[in-house]
Amino acid sequence: MDVIEIFASAGLWGAVLRIATPLIFGTLGALLCERSGVLNLGIEGIMTFGAMIGWLTVYSGGDLWTGIMAAAFFGALFGLLHAVLTVPLGLSQHVTGLGITLFASSLSYYIFRLSVPLASSPPTITPFQPIFIPGLSDLPFFGPALFSQTAPTYLGIALALGLAYVIFRTPLGLAIRMTGENPHGAEAQGVNPIAVRIGAVMAGSALMGVGGAFLTLSAFNSFFPTMVQGRGWVCIALVVFASWRPGRALLGALLFAFFDAFQLRLQNVIGAIPYQIFLMFPYLLSIAALVVMARRARVPQALMQPYRRGER
Amino acid sequence: MRIERRPHRPLSLIVLSPIIAIAAALAVSGGLIAIAGANPFVAYGLILRGAFGSILGFTEMLTRATPLILTGLAAAVAFRAKVWNIGGEGQFYIGAIAVAAFASGSWIAGWPPVLVIPMAMAAGAIAGMAMLLVPLGLRLKFGVDEVVTSLLLNFVALLFVSMMIEGPLRDPLAFGWPSSVPVVDAATLPKLIERTRVHIGLIVAIGLAFAIYFIQARTVFGLQSRAAGLNAPAARFAGVPWVRTLVIVACMSGGLAGLAGAIEVMGVRGYVASDLSPGYGYSGIIVAMLANLHPIGVIAAALFAAIMFVGSDSMSRALGIPSYIADVTVALSLLTMLVSLFFTQYRIVR
């Protein structure tokens, strides 16, 4: 198999959408938080907790969608904790977010270990199955490449478009953007910046939780510690790459997933290079994206600036 | 009801804040232990007995505290100048692998330890410095937030170490998981107490904490690094060489984290494997925050974390409570510490 054959294989394109899905949810979640002015570095831990609680819900008898809802609910709960500490109290968003990540991930390992005794191989569940779309899924090449995904993948793509609409075309989106650009101005317009920020961080964190749950409920069928593998941090980089726009976030996640799927297949073609070089590629790519976009991106002006009424 | 800045910060509150924070974290974790079906007081008693009840437990706790002091200092030094070094974990591993590369060949085997030990430590520290200068350089040159880049580089560093221990530095005699060739005897740190694992790295770590305290409190550079953190524009206006200060701070921070990895290899393991660190780099951030970035406080905070980690291992064996409860408690204490520090500066008024 050579490089051309990799591009021509439907498997590659199917994998792109699959790899992109948790990144789409995570990036949209982080983007929503940052549009309101709050950096949420809790993302890595919230995704881990989402992966764990989603899996645990299904393992103990729940429906797959109940698992997704549980991940969203607990994501929002961690979001509330982050928001309470960083918005009304105005604590450092960097340090608080890292604290949330460390807390949420160690708590998910604790709960997992408590509910599932040590076993040689982690117990599994039946994950989401690909949706068969009559007509489209039978198409040669395009069928397996684009139309053999599970439901959450389609949901993620729809969500990106929906979020773009909400942010740029609705009064709620305007309130969120105003709060992220100039909370004092927003307050003068009758918007409560504190409430908007808390709401946006909770909603964004719910999306992060769902992104994590996709890993255990669709991409794999079991939970193991460290399975999120820095995807949360990649999402934070993708938000910058996307210049805080949901449409570009979708594009960025797909582009990133393409490189990831491509390097996995390239490993088989080029045997002489250690596989770790290929695995470094996604992280280095994220750093490169940050370097290229850092000066160009339009950062929300009040990002990471706590808002206190009557204080400037 | 609103939040108001205190006119002055009472010293008693500053001193009490870590104690209140740890008590609050222990209370929440106690709830988690109770949910799991055990008595939290019994569990905490067993944790204390695990860390202090025997010579073995006590020395093991000190062994565990050694890398935590160093990674804690690494974070504290950087955060004070608002260099957000979250890459301690990666720097730890790069420092460790540098020692494995430097101090494992037959060419160095005949050298005296007096020479090999400082050189190997320096190799680890320099590797850690280099690892942090990349994100700092990207921040100064391109304005990229070093939080995300230093986090992402942790994964790159781990993959690099994995590549080395499966490739050029692989120990052909090791069974099972891949590990690096062992370091020579001359690079092995002497033990503090015979037949235990505690080694002179502990003295090095405590010595460095005092040295950094002196640098921060008594030298021009210490003042400049604090000024650069408190108010960068004002510091630059006042003539602080801002870039140079940040570069030196990054060298100290990366160097300390790299040294932590080097000392762990030279003092405890003797070789590098991919499970060398149970997250020392990340725990270092918590240790630094619990210490309110004070270098001497870092020693105390590292001891607290080490008591939790070592003690919960034996508590877990006795009660069947997952030892992850230690990670939960330590992570929680970071969040409670942030809140309790907040209330040293602000108060709620009606």
Automatic annotation (TrEMBL), chain A:
Entry superkingdom: Bacteria
Keyword Membrane set for record: yes
Subcellular location, record wording: Cell membrane
Membrane topology label: Multi-pass membrane protein
InterPro entries: ABC_transp_permease
Single GO cellular component term: plasma membrane
Keywords per UniProt: Cell membrane, Membrane, Transmembrane, Transmembrane helix
Sequence intervals crossing the membrane: 6-31, 38-58, 64-87, 94-112, 151-168, 194-217, 272-294
One GO MF term: transmembrane transporter activity
Name the UniProt record assigns to this protein: ABC transporter permease
Organism for this UniProt entry: Pelagibacterium lentulum
From TrEMBL, chain B:
GO CC aspect terms: plasma membrane
Compartments, record wording: Cell membrane
Keyword Transmembrane helix: yes
Superkingdom of origin organism: Bacteria
Entry GO MF terms: transmembrane transporter activity
InterPro entries (alphabetical): ABC_transp_permease
Its membrane topology: Multi-pass membrane protein
Keyword terms of this UniProt record: Cell membrane, Membrane, Transmembrane, Transmembrane helix
Transmembrane portions of the chain: 12-35, 55-79, 91-109, 115-135, 147-165, 198-221, 242-263, 283-312, 324-343
Tagged with keyword Zinc-finger: no
A Pfam family per the record: BPD_transp_2
Protein name: ABC transporter permease
